[in-house]
Specification:
It comes from Winogradskyella alexanderae. The chain is an alpha+beta fold. Helix content is 21%, strand content 30%. The strands form two sheets. Strands 1-2-3-8-6-7 form a six-stranded mixed beta sheet, covered by helices on one side. A two-stranded antiparallel sheet has the order 4-5. Helix 1 packs parallel to helix 2. The radius of gyration is 14 Å and the shape is globular.
Length: 126
C-alpha cells in the first residue's frame, strides 16, 4: 500500500505527481527544483542559492514523512552544466555527515523543468 506525502513547506507539484510516495518503509521523493514554497517563485540567485533551496525543499518532504537526511539511502542529482558540480556538491555536503551519506549519482542533462540548473530526488528508508 502506498501513502502520498505532500507538504505546504515544499513546492506544490507542477504536474500529475506527488512530492513523495511512502510504500512500506521506503520513501521515494519526486525531483525537487529551486522553487520557494512561500512565493511559488524560482530562486534565481547563484547555483549555491538554487541548490540550498532544492535541499530545503527535500528536507521539508522528508520531515513530512517523519524522516531526516539520515534516512536517505540514495540520491539522484541532475545538473544542466557539469561545471557547476563542485559548487552543488559543496552545498549538498552540508546536509549529510559522511558517516551516513547516501549512495548517489550525478548526471548532466540538456535541460531541466523550468530551465533550472539542478534537480535532486531521493530514496529514504525508516
Amino acid at each position: 500500500m502506498k501513502k502520498i506525502i505532500n507538504t505546504s513547506k515544499a513546492p506544490a507539484p507542477i504536474g500529475p505527481y506527488n512530492q513523495a510516495i511512502l510504500t512500506g518503509n521506503t520513501l521515494y521523493t519526486s525531483g525537487q527544483i529551486a522553487i520557494d514554497p512561500k512565493t511559488n517563485e524560482l530562486i534565481k540567485g547563484s547555483i549555491e542559492d538554487e541548490t540550498t533551496q532544492v535541499m530545503e525543499n527535500l528536507k521539508a518532504v522528508l520531515a513530512e514523512a517523519g524522516m531526516t537526511f539520515e534516512n536517505v539511502v540514495k540520491t539522484s542529482i541532475f545538473i544542466s552544466d557539469m561545471n557547476n558540480f563542485s559548487k552543488i556538491n559543496a552545498v549538498y555536503s552540508t546536509y549529510f555527515d559522511e558517516s551516513y551519506a547516501p549512495a548517489r549519482e550525478t548526471v548532466e542533462v540538456s535541460s531541466l523543468p523550468k530551465f533550472v540548473n539542478v534537480e535532486i530526488s531521493m530514496i529514504a528508508i525508516v
